Amino acid sequence: MRRTRARKSALAAAIASLLSLATPLFAQTAARLDAQGDAQDARNDALLATPNLATPELLSNLYSTAPGLEQQAPAPQWRFNLLAPLVYNSNAEELNHGGTPTLETSPFGNLSWAAPVPDLPLRVTVSANAESDRFLRASNVDLDKFGISGRLQYVDTTNDQAYSPYVVIASRWDRLPTFADQISARQDFNLGFNKRFNFDGGFQLVPIAGDTSAATVWSVGLTAFVQRRLRAPQLSSSALFVIPSVSYLISEDWNASLAVEFLNRWFDAGNAGFSARRWEAVPIGTVEYVIPPSMFGSERMANLLGRPALDFQGSYLKAWSNSPGAGFDQWTASATIKMGWRF
Question: Residue 100: exposed, middle, or buried by beta-carbon count in 10 A (0-12, 13-18, 19+)?
């Protein structure tokens, strides 16, 4: 036990020492940590943004096509979401060459609370989440994450297709397994907007209303925001995100969605005067099967089990950088059980 703790402490100290270097080498390391977190957030949010009106999903998401994201919460409500994925990852270490292809599991849980702001066209959403990344053939990059966030968003109660500006403050802590020594922490400040267009089965624009979900078959949306990220150990960074998305309700049980996250992140200059830049493109496709309540015996039992859905997802992460050797490619393919509860 003492030897295990000593190894973990030594590894944490080594990582902290590496991350504290204000050099291009550190910039590459910090950029990979950010790339891993940003891409994983994008994949999780894509799973939670499918046009699934049966499984409750949190009212905070990267994609403007997420159900209810531009609608007012009728009353304060709690939601809990759980993702249980099995993933193939082509490059677990996010290396320029020689990354390890491996199976991965990254269970994710999120508890959120959303409520209208009295007498104002605003909705507040607060959430806490935890995620545990485990790689079958690359245990050196196993990581546990815990985060909290707050979102204040403008909503037009008469038009769920209106521009919906928002501000988000989010914190995350990265720890060695299992939620042991902390290796990094970050604080994000996001300012952006959502905009979506809803279409019926004939691809005609759905008339403006406070809730057009019943008539919507296709949704096309855009999310854009700027971000300031404070990181400890340094370096901090700024970023611009542009995220188009589209979703399609195939039937009551099947749906599909496609999104692409484009981002440009630039890191603060270190003592050596080097300022790292990173550009990323992450196309993500998701097909979902909403398991019918009859398979669980009754609607009540399905609700108790979180109205499970089975999601199949593929993604490709392409990263470019002005740091030599810091660019990389990464493919993922996953099957995920998704569940959600509303309280």
Answer: middle
Contact 48, 112 (CB under 8 A): no
Q: CA-to-CA distance for 172 and 166, rounded, in angstroms?
A: 20
Q: Which 3 state secondary structure label does DSSP give 161?
A: coil
Q: Which fold has domain 2-342?
A: Porin (2.40.160)
Per-domain residue ranges of the chain: 2-342
C-alpha to C-alpha distances, 66 to 63, 99, 172, 296, nearest whole angstrom = 6, 33, 23, 26
Contact 292, 38 (CB under 8 A): no
The residues that bridge with 227 in the sheet, in sequence order, are 190, 239
Q: Quick one: how many helices (H) and strands (E) in the chain?
A: 3, 13
Say what the pLDDT of residue 26 is. Answer: 41
Q: How many CA atoms lie within 13 A of 247 on its CB side?
A: 27
Q: Give the Å distances, CA to CA, from 310 to 24, 192, 216, 321.
A: 42, 31, 22, 35
Cβ neighbours of 89 (radius 10 Å): 26
Using CA atoms, how far apart are residues 63 and 303, in angstroms rounded to an integer?
25
Contacts of 214 (CB under 8 A, 6+ apart): none
Q: What is the pLDDT of residue 325?
A: 84
Using an 8 Å Cβ cutoff, are 28 and 324 in contact? Answer: no
For residue 178, cis peptide bond before it (omega within 30 degrees of 0): yes
Sort 186 into a burial class: Cβ within 10 Å, 0-12 / 13-18 / 19+: buried
SS3 at position 25: helix
Distance of alpha carbon 225 from alpha carbon 202, whole angstroms: 31
Measured in degrees and rounded to the nearest 5, phi and psi for residue 326 equal -95, -15
Over pLDDT 90: what percentage of the chain?
80
* Rounded mean pLDDT, 43-52: 97
For the beta carbon of residue 277, count every other beta carbon within 10 angstroms: 16
Q: Distance between CA atoms of 340 and 77, rounded to whole angstroms?
A: 13
E-assigned strand segments in the chain: 77-89, 102-105, 108-116, 122-135, 143-154, 164-175, 182-199, 218-232, 237-249, 254-267, 277-290, 309-321, 328-342
